[in-house]
Amino acid sequence: MNVDVKMNEPNWDNHYYQGLQFTIKTTIQGKEHFIGDGGFVNWTQKLLGRKKERLLISAIGLDRLLFLFKQR
């Protein structure tokens, strides 16, 4: 298994994540598929009223992976 890490310019149009954000991409049979993402959000800062609070979330679309493998 190979894992590549690449750094890109920030996506300034995405206001959901604050600061660091990432995308999880896989290649299956030569085709690239975006299956997940994540980043820092400010939910806990707003809920608790503390600016120092940090929350990093992420998710992978397992349903997307299953769909891709069913197509094989």
Describe what is shown at a glance.
With 72 residues, this protein is α+β, with helices and mostly antiparallel strands. It has two helices and three strands. The chain has a three-stranded antiparallel β-sheet.
What would your notes on this structure say?
The chain has 72 residues and is α+β, with helices and mostly antiparallel strands. It has 2 helices and 3 strands. It has helices at 43-48, 62-70; strands at residues 21-28, 31-41, 55-60. A hairpin with a 2-residue loop joins β1 and β2. The mean pLDDT is 86.
Kindly report the average pLDDT value. 86
Helix content: 10-25%
Based on DSSP secondary structure assignment, what is the total number of beta strands? 3
**Amount of beta strand:** 25-35%
Q: H/E order of the elements?
A: EEHEH
Report low-confidence residues grouped into runs of 5 or more. Answer: none
- Main beta sheet, described? 3 strands, antiparallel
* Rounded Rg: 16 Å
The general outline is: elongated
Alpha carbon gap, first and last residue: 19 Å
> What is the structural class?
alpha+beta
Strand order of the main beta sheet, please?
1-2-3
What is the count of DSSP helices, taking H or I runs of 4+ residues?
A: 2
